[in-house]
Design a protein that fits this description.
about 450 residues; Rossmann fold; 7-stranded mixed β-sheet; about 50% helix; binds NADPH dihydro-nicotinamide-adenine-dinucleotide phosphate
């Protein structure tokens, strides 16, 4: 790392103790930024990096609610409003027992660059709770969401901060959150949340957008090597929103998607994952992958273990952070891996990224490859602002344009800085320069 940036990084790490995921995200970005500061000493002078690493606002709050047996439960809620240089804070809410400030900050920090890369006017933020929706009834989830919003509502708004879904937060949760926001404020402010239902301000393609976008980005990477998804053997991790839609899109482009996972195990389905059945089991019945395996028949279900033991030419990690380590990456590379598109945020460890890059594997980092979700959220905001709703075809066309644009911007930036094909460098520098320029223009804020 550049010596000037090393000192800034040390201070950031010291000021944020015990936040391993945030440290990881900061170090990864700093490692790309040396050459930018050679060309733009004004960024150093204005302490852009120091300011960028300090969220504009961090909100932590108590979320009390009662479970179905009438017992009081307490969770912790978070919203980190990281950077508003380009627009209102924008980023999802994660409900998962592992959530703490370090995870919310890593996600919020990544979101700044991701949102800048989309070319849309949105700043970076993220939030969530250590609430675990798994195994909770609809009534419990509703009471939790209502309590969560009873605090959050005062911090968000169409022009301030616009949350969306993420791990553990899907259409059901967004519905309960929106209902409570509307009730408290007495305003039908559609643009305050994205991922809404179609009949009440949602956008077609938003549910599919992150998974579809990841595949479109990966297809563009493959194109630079004169190939495509057609005939590839694909493994996807996760079986949630992003994973299911990545499977569907990859299959529509001619790939054989042979495996996916959840936190309990993975399934190998050599005939190709049956997306309709997977959707029914996961999205309608809220079941487990094991249920898919039982209903599908003729497939292998592995309890525990790692889905990255399954050979693939294209890997799409779509579950969670640090799920793919150096050893798994080396195994995949030995067995013929050609490309990785990150649907999840930071799913590959730093060791894994190094293995992919040294082996010349095409590697699309999450902040670029999974930006289709937030980009389509911005399209939802556009539709809300103009009281309009677009067709599926038009919205998907816009998503495709945006993903191809992100790919090309990352590729061009990597080339400009002397490292063609390095999408990590391209994404970090491309996102950073845009935000840094805006921050400089807006003075010391
Ligand atoms: P979902 O909750 O719909 O699905 C998450 C999937 O990942 C589930 O299969 C879940 O398994 C698995 N998973 C979650 N946590 C873990 C864990 N600690 N270990 C192993 N498996 C785990 O979430 P999404 O699909 O929305 O999000 C997936 C990833 O994509 C996240 O990294 C998120 O940050 C990223 N992302 C999502 C966007 C969106 O629009 N939704 C936008 C951009 C990025 P189980 O059911 O067993 O918990």
């Amino acid at each position: 790392m550049d010596a000037r940036l090393e000192a800034i990084k040390d201070t950031v790490l010291m000021r944020n103790p015990g936040e391993a995921e945030f440290h990881q995200a900061v170090v990864e970005v700093f490692e790309s930024l040396g050459p930018v500061h050679d060309r733009h000493p004004e960024f150093l002078e204005a302490a852009i990096l120091e300011r960028l690493c300090e969220p504009e606002r961090q909100i932590i709050f108590r979320v009390p609610w009662t479970d179905d047996s009438g017992r009081v439960q307490i969770n912790r809620g978070f919203r980190v409003e990281f950077n508003s240089a380009l627009g209102p804070y924008k980023g999802g809410l994660r409900f998962h027992p592992s959530v703490y400030l370090g995870i919310v900050k890593f996600l919020g920090f990544e979101q700044i660059f991701k949102n800048a890369l989309t070319g849309m006017p949105i700043g970076g933020g993220k939030g969530g709770s250590d609430f675990d929706p798994r195994g909770r009834s609809d009534a419990e989830v509703m009471r939790f969401c209502q309590s969560f919003m009873t605090e959050l509502y005062r911090h968000i708004g169409e022009y301030t901060d616009v949350p969306a879904g993420e791990i553990g937060v899907g259409g059901r949760e967004i519905g309960y959150l929106f209902g409570q926001y509307k009730r408290i404020t007495n305003r039908y402010e559609s643009g305050v949340l994205t991922g809404k239902g179609i009949s009440w301000g949602g956008s077609l393609v938003r549910p599919e957008a992150t998974g579809f976008g990841t595949v479109i980005f990966t297809q563009e990477m493959l194109r630079t090597r004169g190939t495509s998804f057609d005939g590839q053997r694909v493994v996807v991790s996760g079986s949630g929103n992003v994973a299911i839609n990545a499977v569907a899109k990859a299959q529509s482009l001619g790939a054989a998607v042979v495996a996916c996972s959840d936190s309990s195990g993975y399934v190998v389905d050599e005939a190709g994952i049956d997306v309709a059945l997977l959707r029914e089991v996961k999205e309608v019945q809220r079941g487990r992958l094991k249920d898919y395996a039982e209903r599908r028949g003729g497939v292998t279900y592995v309890d525990g273990g790692s889905v990255w033991d399954v050979d693939a030419t294209v890997a799409l990690p779509c579950a969670t952070q640090n799920e793919l380590d150096g050893a798994a990456a080396a195994r995949l590379v030995r067995n013929g891996l050609v490309a990785v598109g990150e649907g999840a945020n930071m799913p590959s460890t730093r060791d894994a990224v190094a293995v992919f890059q040294e082996a010349g594997v095409l590697f699309g980092p999450g902040k670029a490859a999974n930006a289709g979700g937030v980009a389509t959220s911005a399209l939802e905001m556009q539709q809300n602002a103009s009281r309009d709703s677009w067709s599926f075809e038009h919205t998907e066309e816009r998503l495709t344009e945006i993903m191809v644009g992100i790919h090309d911007r990352c590729a061009a930036t990597a080339e400009e800085y002397g490292e063609p094909g390095n999408y990590v460098l391209g994404a970090n520098i491309g996102g950073f320069v845009k935000v840094a320029d805006a921050m400089l223009a807006q003075g010391l804020i």
